[in-house]
Amino acid sequence: MRIILAPMEGLVDAPIRETLTKVGGIDRCVTEFIRVTHSMLPPRVFYKFAPELHNHSLTRVGTPVAVQLLGSDPEQMGWHGNRAAELGATQVDINFGCPAKTVNKHKGGCVLMREPELMHNIVAAVRKAVPEGVPVTAKMRLGYDDRSMGVACAQALEAAGAEEIVIHARSKVDGYKPPAYWEEIAKAREAVKCKVIANGEI
Ligand SMILES: Cc1cc2nc3c(=O)[nH]c(=O)nc-3n(C[C@H](O)[C@H](O)[C@H](O)COP(=O)(O)O)c2cc1C
After folding, report:
1. DSSP string spanning the chain?
2. Distance 5 CA to ligand 1 centre (A)
3. Which of 60, 62, 64, 134 is 20 to 30 A from 16, alpha carbon to alpha carbon?
């Protein structure tokens, strides 16, 4: 069993990752999301979100850190995944879980769960653009409007080449309210062969 520190924008930044991984018990961390829009971000943005890139993508005690991207344009996401890998990322993680209004309004995060085909195209583009040895992973919820999209979206991500899927066991509408619907994670897990990681109320 592995324990992965959930990404939290504005909270789980590099100093917190350093502090918590030093305490121990964490097998991997994820950066805050880097928002990909219409133009190529300069390396300094990647280094700002992921200073661990200067240290082989590891925190000081050696815990691996994945670079997290959020966006909806497959081509741009591919370019940014490639750039992250060029700068030293050892894992590229894609955010399909963010419920924030501004993000969703610009077709990023959880709203993409209404369109499994677009999720597929995003992950496929990143997979194609990132060197083979660098895993491409994704984090999603159970759906946007309700909890009915977990299986379809997990299958779309796997078909696109996602090596691992984290499932936050709530819909966008559920927000962060307890409970988390772990039984829905089981359904998605049975529908795919790739690794599935449970998230929510853990
Ligand atoms: C303040 C805050 C920021 C978050 N930022 C991110 C993020 O950048 N990327 C992401 O995939 N999930 C993000 N999440 C979701 C968490 O990673 C996690 O999925 C969620 O908190 C569910 O777990 P919990 O029930 O244990 O809180 C955020 C959650 C919170 C509360």
Report:
1. ---BPPP-TTTS-HHHHHHHHHH---SBEEEEEEEP-SSPPPHHHHHHH-GGGGGTTB-TT--BEEEEEE-S-HHHHHHHHHHHHHTT-S-EEEEE----HHHHHTT-GGGGGG-HHHHHHHHHHHHHHS-TTS-EEEEE-SBSSSS--HHHHHHHHHHTT-SEEEEESSBTTTTT-S---HHHHHHHHHH-SSEEEEES--
2. 10
3. 134
Which segments in the chain show pLDDT lower than 50?
A: none
Query: For residue 23, what are the domain limits?
Result: 14-199
Q: Is 201 in the pocket of ligand 1 (CB under 6 A)?
A: yes
Atom 14, ligand 1: residue with shortest CA distance: 8
Ligand 1 midpoint to CA 9 (Å):
7
Residue nearest to atom 22 of ligand 1 (CA): 200
Domain presence at residue 7: no
pTM: 0.97
CATH of the domain at 101: 3.20.20.70
- For ligand 1, the distance from its centroid to the CA atom of residue 53, given in whole angstroms, is 22
29 tagged catalytic: no
In a domain, 187, yes or no: yes
23 lines ligand 1 (CB under 6 A): no
